[in-house]
Amino acid sequence: VIQAVFFGICVLTDLSSLLTRGNDSQEQERQLKKLISLRDWMMAVLAFPVGVFVVTMFWSIYIYDREMVYPKLLDNFIPAWLNHGMHTTVLPFVLIEMRTTHHQYPSRSCGLAAVCTFAVGYILWMCWIHQVTGVWVYPLLEHLSPGVKIIFFAAAIIIINVFYLVGEVLNNYIWDTQK
């Protein structure tokens, strides 16, 4: 969902940019700048770090023991192309976007705070679903003791923050914005 919303905003930004080109309307220019800021923020805080996190975590655990993240039973309901759409294609598309469009990253402290807020919110949402249904969203969590779950969640938050920093460094390297 994050990727679909993000790339939808990218398309909207590009169309708005094309449609307002040559137009002297300051209001349209102001709205376009807001849209560009939203696109850049989403790339920095959500699309890149969450996308890279999903691809790395999913395939690492899948290779170790697929039943922990994507039981074979799901093959009967979710075709392989959709699985790759959710867990593979995210990475090349987000890298292509980073290479083709310069993104203005927020200040490091604001960006990391936003990434942490998202990660903690997602973890709380998973815990709430478990509390209500008695089932963990990801089968891997069934096999972890409460203490190990806390360590796992803390490690996940650290990893997603590292991916935020990798995205910032990569963006600066590609666009040579850091002197």
Alpha plus pi helix count:
6
> What is the averaged pLDDT score?
93
Overall structural class, as computed from helix and strand content, comes to: mainly alpha
Tell me the span between the first and last alpha carbons. Answer: 35 Å
**Measured on Cα atoms, how large is the radius of gyration?**
19 Å
Which spans have pLDDT < 50 for at least 5 consecutive residues?
none
How does the major sheet shape up? Answer: none
Helix-strand topology string: HHHHHH
DSSP E strands, number: 0
Q: How many separate domains?
A: 1
* Backbone shape: elongated
As a percent range, the share of helical residues equals: over 70%
What proportion of the residues form beta strands (DSSP E)? under 5%
Membrane topology: Multi-pass membrane protein
Protein name: AIG1 protein
Main location: membrane
InterPro entries: ADTRP_AIG1
Structure overview:
The structure is a single chain. With 179 residues, this protein is mainly α. It has one domain (1-177). 75% of the residues lie in helices and 0% in strands. It is built from 6 helices and no strands. It has helices spanning 2-20, 26-65, 80-87, 90-100, 108-133, 146-175. Helix 2 crosses helix 5 (108-133) and helix 5 packs antiparallel against helix 6 (146-175). It starts with a helix and ends with a helix. The mean pLDDT is 93.
